[in-house]
Amino acid sequence: MKLACLHAHHSNTEYIESALSHYKIELMHFVDPGLMNRVTYDENFQPIDARMKVKEQMEWIAQSNVDAILITCTNYIALLNEEDISFSIPIIKMDEPFFEVICQLDKPQVILFTNPATVEGTMNRLKDYAKAKQKTLDIEVIVIEGTFDLLMQGLNDEYNRLICNYMRKIIHDEKKEISVAQLSMVKAAKQIEREISKTIINPMDALSSSILKSIT
Fold first, then answer.
1. What three-state secondary structure class fits 194?
2. Are residues 155 and 149 in contact, defined by beta-carbon separation less than 8 angstroms?
3. What is the phi/psi pair of residue 48, to 5°?
4. Does residue 128 sit in helix, strand or coil?
5. 8 Å CB contact between 155 and 87
6. Residues in contact with 103: Cβ distance below 8 Å, sequence separation at least 6, in sequence order
7. Could you report the per-residue pLDDT of 46-75, keeping only the tens digit for each?
């Protein structure tokens, strides 16, 4: 199987490589941080412009002789208008296995973000997913301020350090299940898991489990 992966940041490639290295999957990575940068910071960049850019990227990738396309960015997924897609190659949305794990929990939850521009699209999709599954969710959304710019500047270690520090502050007092919504937050979540032996729900583990089920 040849899987094309569309990322909004270069740091996401290592997560996918690590998680899927044990499967018989050939990975091809496409990375474009420019689109999310404009969506986040350019007030003149309209949603229709962003959707058209995603459409162009998807059609370009589809012509690269791949069997499926994985979209790892929640904003890309929210922007995707499947009615505009003219090809029949399967599209795997990174957030859907993550949503499935969240919907299986019958207790209050906290979802952490670093990118404020990602929250609305992700939460709207989660609400629609939960509604389709006839699930009622009790979720608090928290954005860890002052972190996302570090990722955009390539300061990954500092980015992970601040996420870890924030999770350490809330983890022992927080009675709710905690998850991280963005792929870029997985490394920090895994570090906290090792420190305190408490599971932090993340989209990477959910995707790995979903793919394993689909190919076995």
1. helix
2. no
3. -65, -35
4. helix
5. no
6. 129, 130, 133, 135, 137
7. 878 888 888 888 999 999 999 999 998 887
Q: Which two tokens stand for residue 131?
A: 């509604």
**Element housing 110 (H / E):** strand 109-113
In whole angstroms, what is the distance from residue 11 CA to residue 63 CA?
A: 24
- Give all domains of the chain, ordered by start, each with its CATH number: 2-93+207-215 (3.40.50.1860), 96-203 (3.40.50.1860)
Give CA–CA dist 55/46, Å, rounded: 15
Q: What is the mean pLDDT of the chain?
A: 88
* CA pair distance 85, 74, nearest whole angstrom: 18
> Six-digit token pair at 102?
């969240």
The amino acid sitting at 90 is: P
The single-letter code of the amino acid at 106 is D
d(CA 58, CA 90): 11
pLDDT tens digits along 105-145: 988 999 999 988 889 889 999 999 999 999 999 999 999 99
Q: Which helix (H) or strand (E) holds 30?
A: strand 26-31
